[in-house]
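Homework help board

Subject: predicted structure for assignment chain

Our instructor gave us this sequence and asked us to write out the predicted structure in token form, then describe one feature. I got the tokens but I'm not sure how to describe them. Can anyone check?
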Amino acid sequence: MADRDLIVRLAFGSMAAQTLRAAVRLKVMERVGSTPRPAAELAAEVGAEPQPMTRLLRALTGLGLLVEHTPDHFSATPAGALLDPGNPDSLTSFVRMFTEPTIVRAWEHLDDSVRTGDIAFDAVFGTDFFSHLAQHPELSAEFNAAMSQAVAVTAAALPSAYDFGRFTTVTDVGGGDGTLLAGVLAAHPGLNGVLFDTTEGLSKAPTTMERHGVAGRCSLVAGDFFRSVPAGSDLYLMKSVLHDWTDDQVVTILRNCRAVLPPGGRVLIVEPVLPEVVDPRAEADVTDGGITYLSDLNMLVNVGGRERTRDDFTEVCHRAGLTLTSVTPLAEAAPFSLIEAVAD
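My token output:
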């Protein structure tokens, strides 16, 4: 029976995701709060019918995001509160982005990508994912906000998990709005930073740097990491960048870092590192390790990249003129690891 339950739960997974999307679009969680509220009152506030609203709230309760205290009276759980955009740890943009039809449509062609190795997104939309974002500013802004929310836990864990004190300047390659770099600079007052990304990627960076009080120690540089990266740093940091790209593209990015790496400099890659064999503890309901394998398939269908094993990282680093020196799990930001490389 447990095996059948597993299959049924997985088959309903996309419905659970769309339930989250509906809750975010209707702004349910910012209205529910921690004090029980009647469903009819919430329905009136969002312009919904009372009975369907009750059904949505009960589905959210079944998913662990609300509590029904008395019939038709609900409050948010701590997990549900993460769908409130007013929560500093909010994941609303992340949910909106990863339930966005633009993302989901390519998944309908996963079998085609498995057969051919081709990127389903490109076939569906007639262009690649990042070009599509550039053509749709609102979607691009949502993507950048989602990435900022996704990096928050790593930004809190990374500064104390690596010896940044031995460096003078760190360049965050593909660092988006600077959430990760700002966390590092705030924790290490003697360190200077360079935030390197596209013009679109950097659009919110000044606000991030000001908010963390590090704007005076950080330069913002727009560019294309397939062409070059800024010289002058002794540490080059990349988080969740390489998994977006093919091995050949990854080698190009790493070679550009290698070209400007000074003696004693380091490249620090922050990404999941897949085991050689799937850990049986990787939960089938996509918690813990299981989500990394779904991320791997998302790279396949939407952008053409992939998650990698230690041997995979060793190989791309070697091709770029780098030697991988260590892989350290980032325990407080699982499933990420710190992958350090030096010049050959």
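Reply (TA_rk): Your tokens look well-formed. For the description, you could write something like this. DSSP finds 16 helices and eleven strands in the chain. That's the kind of observation they're looking for.
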